[in-house]
Write a structure and sequence with these properties.
By secondary structure, this protein is an alpha/beta fold. Helix content is 31%, strand content 18%.
Length: 1124
């Protein structure tokens, strides 16, 4: 535990004294008085065992004491033994937090401090004996001086017994500052204490810091607070741990009591100060403590008034003070101006910690009972890391056998343990009505549900959802992300609250969710107005006999959800008009009837039902906001929705026989979401959508031919999906989708064109028009007559025209259009040439023209292209200049390569490797690398010739990696190739091939690395290692050691800001043309040597260095071409 050093203390008090002065009078009386008070005191004559070495025993006793009292008498300093004790005591004060007091017995403090009189004589004698400049004597003098300045008692004349009683009383008071009992079994505390100490910033003695410990009930906030208190309290002048502040401060009188206790503990007074009122106590704390460095812990605070009365702000306390507040309410800390950086969330134990804590409580020290792992896991699953639950459950199961474990678990699933439940319920009791209602709804119905859906339902029930959920989060009762989560035990607590509303009659409870309860209430018509919500969600379809009048008495019913429930009675069910949310997927009937008059229904979910149509059902549904009739396969016609002016979401998705959308939806001003996906027969739709609030349209997989006009600018509409529809074109008014980010019109066989107004979509990032075989031409920017536009589609990053019928790509010529384009998909089109302007698109990182079989020419590629696919472009003219090494270096060094999928790749339909590639004749190659060289490696560029062989069963290739001959990993690749051989270029990082390499863990300075390329489709391969400039010293080492053939290495000036430029210096070179040719010949010779010294299947390079291979990128490339 964090306070282990404190637990090693044995003695309350250590007495340091000169025996000849005080042993037989004052000392004996003091020792006896301390002993009578139960204060365990170390005195050498009492504690030294016979035969024990005196000095080590005394020094150890000092270390194991809480308080040391130095009794300064006339001859104290004459004893070197006493001086050693004093020096040790003062060192322990500094290093271990030992509390030290001084008793000046018939001497004055200044005699000790200066020193004077006999103390001066004694020090002169010690200097004579040990030397005037003795370090030990200096330490003794310093110890005497420091000790004489401490708090102490000065005894001159008078009755010793009076002085002794005063000393004993003061010591007893100080001993009240003792370590706190943390817990019987402590697990997982140390790591949390370390984090909390870091947050407390104890090294800073200037500022006053307040820190909050926040977490749910039972999670261990108080345990952690006690542990941190024990660990650090000795670093402060005074300390106080005020436990159970919530319990002990229920009114102003109780707050006064806490103020008095705080003052008593901090000021170490013999008697309590009397505080007349909270305001008086506030002033008293501020006045008395503002110069004291204190540690104050306020445990279990739940009201801002408590903080204002006990620790109003930092100015109340002295510099270096630390105030720690434990609470379940995060907002309370925020209100007290504690920022997020100083709020420590105390989280549940992890699985390992939880298992350890459960074991300590559940299993006795004697040999463990044989308990099945699944039973232990069940307990851990219930507790979910909550220490309180682990302690209570573990203790209740201690020493019990398997059948008793099973019985206990069954009992707990029905009735939560009262000890746990009572602690958790404190958080609920502190909530206001709105938050209590939301909490109970979530506990009974919505734990684990989609948070957006839950917010809709709760809001429909007229609850203040935004602030309500935030408060529940601050009280650690829920967590909200994609789903709303809640600890199982907190859920049990919520359900128990509802069940206890009326134990014997479920019909009188506010909420029903269990089958038996719902069955009894609905089939027997025994409901009451107390019922607010019924949610029955069954795993399997189940028949339920619902009385037609079952809901008539439930005048306060707000929420009704029935899932997998089939009503066995044929008649209609009548629902109360006060109902806000009705959800019955799979309902076999028409929409249930409502009472006469206005309806307050907000949400109507009737998906997967047998409803054929809805006639005159929505006349009085003015509040209806959400309608879901998705997958009602028998529905043919939509209802008239003109009387639902507040409708926001409408879902008819999956109604495969729906033929017509009612004209009324065109005039729903508040409509935001409209879904008709999978309505295969839908062909009739209004010509216009007037809503200014539309955010989402989904017409995927419909017979939808004409997209409606959008007369208003839609500022919240971000996504349009028209996949696999019969649409032929989009209207010019598409430009009014001013916030549109994603548009998908793929698989639309009838689509012929897009309007030029599409260029006005300033926020469009993704446009997918793939697999539209009749789409023959992308609109021309020049056809858009708008002089105010500076750029067309300025935010577009991904353009997908895969599988269209384009014959040209002139729309790419204008560089003012889609300047941020990063991905362009043109595969399977009829284009013959790519515009030359493509080379100036600096943002383009992926270009795919694969299977463009009529493509004849590709100009220079964009400078930062990292993925280029031209496989199966059988008409493409060979272009050796297309993938020079400088392009790979330039593009790849700036790329983000996190996984194998991110590797830069280039594929071309030609079968000869460029001359810059270092060819390898076998499957693999190995070489020796030092740490200095490894740190220079930036990446590896592979070039692989892939043959087209119909007899090949496996058309994949594999890039393998080795360290010291051991194979590490294999990365695979595959391309669907035609009759041509292809070149594949792959670039990767050394860390991806060889993972993390630790040179400190090897013997020697070098590691043997290896790479290989294998596969039935591999015809030949080669590679280069791209690295930073090596420097003369490293080059000399490589040459002397003959570690690697430098023809493999390709040096770049990685730090150069001109790396992206065409003329970037890869090497500096002043060589003549003859020298360059000679270097190249050396390089060619080194290519041939491996076959002479390595095996046929594997190269081992340990070759002499050739001459300098230093040139500019373009010079090296030119030489390669000439040599080829």
């Amino acid at each position: 535990m964090a306070s282990s050093s404190k637990s090693e203390k044995i003695y309350h008090v250590f007495l340091s004294f000169r025996g000849t002065d005080v042993r037989n009078n004052f000392l004996n009386h003091l020792y006896t008085a301390l002993d009578l008070k139960g204060i365990y005191t170390y005195v050498d004559s009492e504690e030294l065992r016979k035969g024990e070495e005196i000095e080590p025993a005394l020094m150890e006793a000092i270390e194991k004491s809480n308080i040391a009292v130095i009794i300064f008498s006339e001859d104290y300093a004459s004893s070197s033994w006493c001086l050693k004790e004093a020096a040790k005591i003062m060192r322990c004060k500094k290093e271990r937090g030992l509390k030290v007091f001084s008793v000046f017995y018939k001497v004055e403090p200044r005699e000790v401090r200066t020193p004077r009189k006999k103390y001066k004589e004694a020090m002169i004698n010690h200097e004579a004996k040990f030397g005037k400049h003795s370090e030990e004597v200096k330490r003794w003098k310093e110890a005497l001086s420091n000790a004489s300045n401490l708090f102490g008692w000065e005894l001159k004349d008078g009755d010793d017994s009076e002085h002794i009683q005063r000393i004993v009383k003061d010591i007893a008071t100080h001993l009240g500052r003792r370590p706190l009992n943390v817990a019987k079994h402590i697990v997982g505390i140390n790591s949390r204490v370390v984090k909390l100490k870091s947050m407390l910033n104890l090294e800073s003695g200037v500022d006053v810091l307040m820190v909050g410990l926040w977490g749910q009930g039972g999670v261990g906030k108080t345990t952690l607070a006690k542990a941190i208190y024990n660990d650090i309290y000795s670093k402060f002048d005074s300390s106080s741990f005020l436990a159970n502040v919530r319990e002990t401060s229920k009114d102003c009188k109780d707050l006064v009591t806490l103020q008095e206790k705080l003052l008593f503990e901090i000021l170490l007074r013999k008697e309590r100060l009397v505080v007349s009122s909270v305001d008086a106590g506030t002033n008293l704390i501020r006045e008395r403590l503002r110069h004291k460095k204190i540690l104050l812990i306020l445990d279990d605070v739940d009201d801002l008034r408590q903080l204002n009365a006990l620790a109003g702000d930092g100015e109340w306390f002295g510099n270096g003070s630390r105030i720690i507040i434990t609470t379940r309410d995060k907002h309370l800390l925020t209100c007290h101006d504690i920022d997020q950086d100083h709020i420590y969330e105390v989280q549940a134990l992890n699985h390992i910690e939880a298992h350890e804590l459960l074991s300590k409580h559940a299993f006795p020290t004697q040999p463990k009972l044989k308990i099945k792992n699944d039973l232990v896991k069940s307990v851990l699953n219930i507790a979910k890391g909550l220490p309180l639950a682990l302690e209570v459950l573990g203790s209740s199961l201690r020493g019990r056998r398997e059948h008793e474990w099973k019985s206990t678990l069954r009992k707990f699933s029905r009735v939560p343990n009262s000890k746990i439940n009572d602690v958790l319920k404190i958080s609920y009791d502190g909530l206001e009505e709105n938050e209590q209602e939301i909490f109970l709804h979530i506990a009974c119905f919505f734990k684990g549900k989609d948070s957006k859906y839950v917010k809709k339902v709760l809001k429909s029930c007229e609850l203040e959802v935004a602030i309500g959920l935030e408060i529940l989060i601050e009280r650690c009762l829920i967590r909200v992300g994609f789903k709303i989560e809640m600890h199982d035990l907190i859920q049990f607590m919520g359900k128990k609250i509802v069940n206890e509303e009326c134990r014997d009659n479920p019909g009188r409870r506010s909420r029903l969710w269990q089958y038996d309860d719902v069955f009894n209430v609905l089939s027997s018509n025994v409901g009451y107005c107390t019922t607010k919500a019924i949610v029955l969600e069954l795993l399997e379809p189940t028949e339920l006999c619902i009385d037609p009048d079952a809901f008539t008495k439930m005048r306060n019913l707000r929420l009704l959800i029935l899932s997998n429930v089939h009503d066995s009675l044929p008649g209609p069910v009548c629902l109360p008009n006060e109902l806000r949310w009705f959800e019955w997927p799979g309902c076999a009937h028409k929409i249930p009837q409502f009472s006469f008059g206005p309806k307050k229904l907000v949400g109507l979910y009737m998906s997967k039902g047998n409803t054929t149509g809805v006639v005159k059902q929505f006349k009085d549904f003015q509040n209806l906001t959400f309608i879901n009739f998705s997958q009602c396969e028998l529905m043919v016609h939509m209802p008239d929705l003109s009387c639902t002016p507040n409708l926001k979401e409408l879902n008819f998705g999956g109604c495969k026989n729906l033929e017509e959308a009612h004209e009324s939806i065109a005039y729903l001003d508040k409509l935001q979401v409209l879904k008709f996906w999978g309505c295969y027969k839908l062909s009739v739709f209004p010509n216009v959508l007037n809503s200014k609030n539309l955010q989402h349209l989904d017409f995927n997989f419909t017979n939808f031919e004409r997209f409606p006009d959008i007369p208003h600018k839609l500022k919240g509409f971000e996504e349009l999906s028209l996949v696999d529809t019969a649409i032929k074109e989009l209207p010019e008014s598409i430009e009014n989708l001013v916030a549109l980010k994603r548009m998908s019109i793929r698989d639309c066989e009838n689509l012929r064109q897009l309007p030029s107004s599409i260029y006005k979509l300033q926020n469009l990032e993704e446009l997918d028009v793939s697999d539209c075989p009749n789409f023959i031409e992308f609109p021309k920017y020049e056809d858009l007559a708008d002089p105010c536009m500076e750029a067309g589609l300025p935010s577009l990053r991904n353009l997908n025209l895969w599988g269209c019928n384009l014959s040209e790509a002139r729309f790419l010529e204008n560089l003012s259009c889609f300047p941020l384009l990063s991905e362009l998909h043109l595969q399977e089109n009829n284009i013959t040439i790519i515009p030359t302007s493509i080379s100036k698109r600096d943002s383009l990182s992926r270009l795919d023209v694969s299977n463009c079989r009529q493509l004849q020419e590709i100009p220079e590629l964009p400078p930062f292209l990292t993925k280029f696919f031209a496989d199966n472009c059988e008409s493409l003219q060979k272009n050796e200049d297309l993938i020079p090494i400088h392009h790979i270096v330039r593009a790849c060094l700036g790329a983000s390569i996190d996984t194998h999928e991110d590797w830069p790749r280039f594929v071309l339909p030609q079968g000869e490797m460029p001359q810059w590639v270092f060819p390898i004749e076998g499957d693999s190659i190995s070489f020796m690398v030092s740490e200095d060289l490894y740190d220079k490696i930036l990446g590896l560029a592979f070039c692989i010739v892939l043959k087209n062989d119909k007899k090949v069963e496996d058309d994949s290739f594999y890039i393998d990696s080795y360290i010291n001959g051991e194979r590490l990993d294999s990365k695979d690749g595959r391309y669907d190739l035609s009759d041509l051989d292809h070149l594949a270029f792959e670039y990767t990082l050394p860390s991806h091939l060889w993972e993390e390499v630790d040179f400190a863990q090897i013997d020697g300075r070098y590691i043997q690395f290896g790479v290989g390329v294998t596969g039935e489709v591999v015809k030949k391969w080669g590679f280069r290692i791209i690295c930073k400039q090596l420097g003369d010293a490293l080059k000399a080492e490589l040459q002397d050691k003959q570690l690697i053939n430098t023809a493999i290495l390709y040096e770049v000036d990685h730090g150069s800001t001109d790396l992206a430029a065409e003329s970037s210096h890869v090497h500096e070179d002043n060589s003549s043309e003859a020298d360059l040719e000679e270097d190249w010949q050396d390089c060619q010779m080194s290519f041939e040597e491996p076959s002479q010294i390595g095996s046929k299947r594997k190269h081992e390079f340990n070759l002499p260095l050739g001459k300098r291979i230093k040139t500019m990128i373009t010079s090296l490339y030119d030489r390669c071409r000439r040599a080829g």
